[in-house]
Specification:
The complex is a heterodimer of chains A (336) and B (425).
Chain A lengths: L15 E5 L13 E5 L4 H10 L1 H16 L7 H21 L7 H28 L1 H6 L5 H29 L10 H26 L2 H15 L7 H9 L7 H6 L3 H13 L3 E2 L15 E2 L6 H30 L2 H4 L1
Parallel strand pairs in A: 1-2
Antiparallel strand pairs in A: 3-4
Chain B lengths: L2 E15 L6 H6 L6 E15 L3 E5 L6 H9 L6 E7 L2 E4 L12 H11 L4 H15 L14 H14 L4 E5 L7 H16 L3 E6 L2 H7 L2 E6 L2 E6 L1 H13 L17 E10 L14 E9 L3 E11 L5 E4 L8 E4 L4 E7 L7 E11 L6 E12 L36 H5 L10
Parallel strand pairs in B: 3-7, 3-8, 5-6, 6-7
Antiparallel strand pairs in B: 1-2, 1-4, 8-9, 10-11, 11-15, 12-13, 12-14, 12-16, 16-17
Helix pairs in contact in B: 3-4, 3-5, 4-5
Classes of the chains: A mainly alpha (336), B alpha+beta (425).
Chain lengths: 336, 425
């Protein structure tokens, strides 16, 4: 008879936790609690386990970051150099070579790339995270979704560094964001994180069984990037569709991309304007030049509504991804 | 006594694909379904493991014992059935699993502890203990990739045992590290036992099971063969599963710099000078020359006798106190004396071993190094000359006195009595 048995009233009912496909022994857990291992997937339990193991998520994220930049001379600077280079290239191509007239185009690009980088970083590394951690998966029982979520964690850290740079850039170029709509940013960010988490969890599990996923993801993300108004404006799309009324429904297809409302919200707040007027040199002052619309002039409420829809859909996808992950997880140890 | 692990009708099917087809192309070719051969690694396994018990699972490679352990740990999901585990659990399936070579020992303690279910605060509290146990104070901020394999494993063990689980699952991982560290690990396992924690050990080595376990489950082809006392379980394992009675001596390779080394082994009997063979029932003395680099005061001698087909005839109890001896530095001669060897015809070989009771790394084993032959002058056949007495009496109730067998000659007197030299002459 163990000593600890005395510490508990004998008539106290044993709390039972039911776990599909994984035993999770949670810190500070009651020693009398019973853990059940069977073939079922219990969504509520999975969510609870994720929350209980948040310490582990932080540690996994931290170690991912440490490993990523260990032994490299520039270290965390690399996390800046890559997006900076991407931004420079787009800027050169669109502003200098193809003579885009949009003022402060770099800031416009930055606002969109900020969102895209978070999603792209997490989705790309999530495909290999479970396969790459086969050693842990085969020998230790823990909520494996945390591995996928750690890639999101890493992406969030890199995102934060970029935000700091963006704020510096805004200050240097003297651009004022639209502070009235600033509340859109946290809402958009939450929607983005939930959506990215859902995709990461889904991709990480599927790639175990179908190794094509990682290559497919690369290609699809590339297409996805160009289907999102980042290097061009939503205004261009709506103008183009306005000239072809027969296919105006394509607008809804375009907006169905969950990343689009998020990117547009960031642009709306950070870029701070919905249109600009470009006066070509030597235009006489009395000539009227129509403004170029870059973003629809919706009120903050409509942006918030769109984000709300994205958030609700993302939460649904997240739960779905957890179920898919739970189904597939049971055989991870043998498939890897 | 309550049940710590309740395993109910667990089955686990693995799918054996002819080749690993994990690409989309292959899936399309096979119409989404992949041809596979079902393989039942576990087939309706049910057992209850009690709280505070040290439970051994014995079986040869591929019998499903590790799969069962992984199912208990929650690493694998059973195809059907259910396992209920009471209390917290830690699995030592591989020491240092989940270590990140690029990270420092310190970071890895936090990461690994967290993977095993500890919170940051708990790890913080146990951090010094873990480092001290692993004896890695100087290297704790070095990257783990620069650790020696011994340091790596020590750190892994230190983290795992400091989780202080209610149920500990061990998969043959204790055979690691140097002798001193092994000692420490075994001490820790003993401490766990004394504290009333449940331990499940998986092994195909009988020695560890016999020494540590209260009960043992023998498995073969995913099925439970028996759940019994270690002695009986090991007998079933050796007899039924291995088909041969050879003693488990997987460690016979020895360790470089081992303390013990056994030299010449000789089997002698009363008539050694005049004839080569032994008579049934005669005394046998086996001597073994032993060199020892250090004084070991709790050495355990073991001896085993095999017949010419390699079947085990006799092996001494590994924990028999009469086998314990104090070996001074330099060594000496071990002597095993059998006052009576009741074996019948055959050539028998003698294996001799010695180990330290406490430090599992100190041992030596000489396999079938000396032989002796038994020649049976009588007409009894078989392998063993059993002492026997025969008498006869009437069934009727009136007569209680025994009627001696013909001529008062007891057959036992013929074959059961100590054999006299004059049988030969």
């Amino acid at each position: 008879m163990s000593v600890r048995e005395v510490q508990h009233a004998p008539d106290e009912p044993d709390p039972i936790r039911n776990i599909g496909g994984g035993t999770r022994f949670v810190p500070g857990s009651n020693s009398r609690q019973i853990t059940v291992v069977n073939g079922k997937v219990q969504l509520g339990q999975r969510l609870k386990d994720l929350w209980r193991n948040r310490d582990l998520l932080v540690l996994l994220t931290r170690s991912e970051l440490k490993i990523k930049y260990k032994n490299s001379v520039l270290g965390y600077l690399w996390s800046m150099l890559n997006p900076a280079l991407v931004l420079t290239i787009y800027f050169m191509v669109f502003k200098i070579i193809s003579k885009n007239n949009q003022p402060d185009f770099a800031i416009w690009l930055f606002a969109g790339l900020l969102v895209w980088n978070l999603y792209n970083n997490a989705a790309m590394s999530s495909t290999t995270v479970v396969v790459g951690k086969a050693g842990i998966i085969k020998k230790v029982a823990f909520p494996r979704e945390l591995l996928a979520l750690s890639t999101v964690g890493v992406a969030i850290v890199l995102f934060s560094i970029q935000v700091v740079v963006l704020i510096l850039a805004l200050a240097i170029f003297g651009i004022t964001p639209d502070f009235h709509l600033i509340y859109l940013i946290p809402l958009a960010l939450v929607a983005l994180i939930v959506f990215t988490s859902a995709m990461s969890i889904f991709l990480s599990a599927v790639n175990v069984y179908l190794r094509d996923t990682q290559h497919l993801t690369e290609v699809l993300l590339m297409a996805w990037f160009w289907a999102t108004p980042i290097v061009y404006t939503y205004g261009m799309i709506s103008r183009e569709l306005a000239t072809h009324p027969s296919v105006s429904w394509l607008k809804y297809v375009y907006l169905a991309n969950p990343i689009t409302p998020i990117v547009m919200s960031f642009q709306r707040v950070i870029y701070g304007r919905t249109e600009y007027t470009y006066r070509p040199p030597k235009t006489p002052p009395h000539v009227y030049v129509a403004p170029t619309v870059v973003l629809p002039n919706w009120g903050g409420g409509f942006y918030a509504l769109l984000l709300g829809v994205v958030l609700v859909v993302s939460i649904g996808l997240f739960l779905l991804a957890l179920i898919v992950f739970g189904r597939l997880e049971g055989n991870f140890a043998e498939e890897l | 006594m309550s049940v710590a692990i309740d395993i109910r009708n667990i089955s686990k099917q693995f799918r054996l694909y002819n080749e690993k087809h994990t690409s989309l192309k292959e899936r399309v070719i096979h119409g989404g379904k992949m041809p596979f051969v079902p393989f039942w690694a576990l087939d309706d396994v049910s057992v209850e493991i009690n709280e505070g018990e040290t439970f051994g699972i014995l079986g040869r490679n591929g019998c499903g014992k590790s799969t069962l352990l992984k199912c208990i740990a929650g690493i694998l999901k059973p195809t059907s059935g259910e396992i209920r585990v009471r209390g917290s659990l830690a699995a030592m399936l591989e020491l240092g699993a989940g270590f990140q070579p690029e990270l420092s020992g310190r970071d890895n303690i936090f990461l690994n502890g967290s993977l095993l279910g500890l919170s940051r605060a708990e790890i913080q509290r146990r951090f010094d203990d873990i480092v001290a146990f692993a004896e890695l104070e100087e290297f704790i901020d070095n990257q783990v990739k620069f650790y020696s394999s011994g340091m790596y494993v020590r750190l892994g063990f230190a983290v795992a045992v400091n989780v202080e689980p209610d149920v500990l699952l061990v998969d043959e991982v204790l055979a690691v590290g140097d002798a001193a560290f092994q000692r420490k690990c075994l001490d820790h396992v003993r401490k766990f036992q004394n504290e009333g924690r449940t331990i499940v050990v998986v092994s195909h080595g009988t020695d560890a099971i016999r020494q540590n376990c209260g009960r043992v489950m023998v498995m073969n082809h995913g099925k439970v063969i028996t759940v019994d006392e270690p002695g009986e379980g090991i007998r079933v394992y050796l007899a039924d599963l291995l088909g041969v009675g050879t003693l488990e001596h997987s460690d016979s390779g020895g360790i470089a710099g081992n303390v013990f080394s056994i030299g010449t082994v000789q089997a002698e009997h009363a008539g050694s000078g005049t004839r080569l063979h032994l008579l049934p029932g005669e005394a046998l003395t086996v001597t073994a020359d032993l060199d020892s680099l250090a004084a070991v005061n709790n050495a355990m001698a073991t001896i085993a006798i095999h017949d010419d087909k390699g079947e085990l005839v006799f092996a001494s109890d590994p924990d028999d106190p009469i086998c314990q001896m104090e070996v001074p530095e330099g060594g000496g001669v071990m002597r095993f004396y059998f006052p009576e060897v009741p074996l019948l015809d055959g050539t028998y070989s003698v294996s001799v071993g010695i180990r330290s009771l406490t430090e599992t790394a100190i041992f030596d084993w000489k396999d079938q190094v000396a032989t002796f032959e038994v020649v049976n002058p009588g007409r009894t056949t078989g392998r063993v000359r059993l002492p026997m007495d025969v008498s006869f009496r009437l069934r009727s109730s009136g007569h209680t006195g025994e009627v001696p067998a013909i001529g008062g000659l007891s057959i036992g007197g013929l074959i059961g009595a100590p054999v006299a030299e004059d049988f030969l002459t």
